[in-house]
């Protein structure tokens, strides 16, 4: 179908920042442009909801007024660096609408938002999407880079869109100090809508104030009502008159003008299809129910052998497993021994269940991974106290130094890093493929990395290791996984199963060779193994749920066969496969050896990430291996 919002109606406007008052004609043009782009963003981001790939609507919708004003400045003078840098990568719809305005993308392409292989992933990726001018997606990383852009272009003003969420990151504090110290011509336009993924900063992070924080660092700050275009333009003109870094703080509700999600945390995510239909009808676009209904979620249509049809969400089950431990303690004992701290992701990493059932041990906190991890470590500094920390596996890379110091201080921390690997990952910036970075201690210190294969093993692992001392890392995926089944159809990790740290599980015995896998790849590997066995290849399967500890008995068993193949979604350069061959050789075990892992940037979509990396049994690579 043709795109119903006619972007050709967008009128180019040139605004002179020395004239802080808009004329009636300028204001009318701006308001029309704002409404046009907001309608377009609602329309195409809702296709992500329709195809079941999620997305984000509210943030990009919010900042359209700021974007329109920046475009008018770019049209006015080359003294303004013509890139709309954005700290919040989830506001990627902004970059896609800008690419469409400049002709790099067609409006019809926008209708494939977040679809696999559409080149329209959930965060901007430089070099992937035509018209996208930078990569973003991990909060706190853009402003420091923009400082560098300003140092490289001292004759231009450089702009960066920010948010009250991204400003919570410690990187931004460092960026502020550098910008002030060097007098950088960086201007921030910050959407302060008091909404992040898990709630409202004014409630879970009392005392946090974006304007006061930036003023304390020495920036000039102007606060306005973001939906008042006259005030917004006047404030922008004011900070442009200032010689040095400055910020305009736009106060507004999340997703203003969309009744179903306005001011709520739901506005952070993709707009529900029903809400989009209602919005578009109210805007006079007609009824698009049939259009959105015609968009279907794409399934792989493959039936895996060796695992259940029903699925479990390990990232959620982690919280259930912790609750099973806490249920055995009195509230007084739990408060004394355990502290669970969130980084604005409780609904995504399983901590929400702990928050609801055991609020006495739960601390809601902001988007401050380094500080929150260290707080959990500090709580666990006493021998009989235990901190619990959780975030996405991609953000493990942000806390490596803190992990080292926690280890040196003999702290007790149970870490849950969800969204590991690439299965259903929100594309490359959210790939959790360097989990082995957590194993950065010296040979005389052990940190345990656990990656359960299904929900039952997740429960077994958490219950077994919760009160062990030191650093323990538990990984899960964004995707749901089936239960691993025995030959008799019963769940492998239930009944009398007991998890033993460092002990590998023999899922299937083999004489010709073995596949070694774990996590979300185990059920896929099991399917390949069973199909190979049907073809006469007697191959076995090992579940290496303790990733970084060698099970001497198991490695000897498999190393004496003809071949060993490690299959995982971790980085091919840093994962288990990059180490396992060395472990074999150190023991004079010389089977044919190969390993498979993630090797390239993502394709978008959900489950499609696995075959795109050549890791699914349908690819036929296990058999050829």
Automatic annotation (TrEMBL):
GO terms for biological process: generation of precursor metabolites and energy. Its cofactor is Mg(2+); Mn(2+); thiamine diphosphate; Co(2+). It comes from Amanita thiersii Skay4041. It holds the Pfam family Transket_pyr. This is Transketolase-like pyrimidine-binding domain-containing protein. Residues 316-484 form the Transketolase-like pyrimidine-binding domain. Belongs to the transketolase family. InterPro entries: PDH/Transketolase, THDP-binding, Transketo_C/PFOR_II, Transketolase-like_Pyr-bd, Transketolase_C, Transketolase_N. Transmembrane segments: none annotated. It comes from the Eukaryota. GO terms for cellular component: cytoplasm.
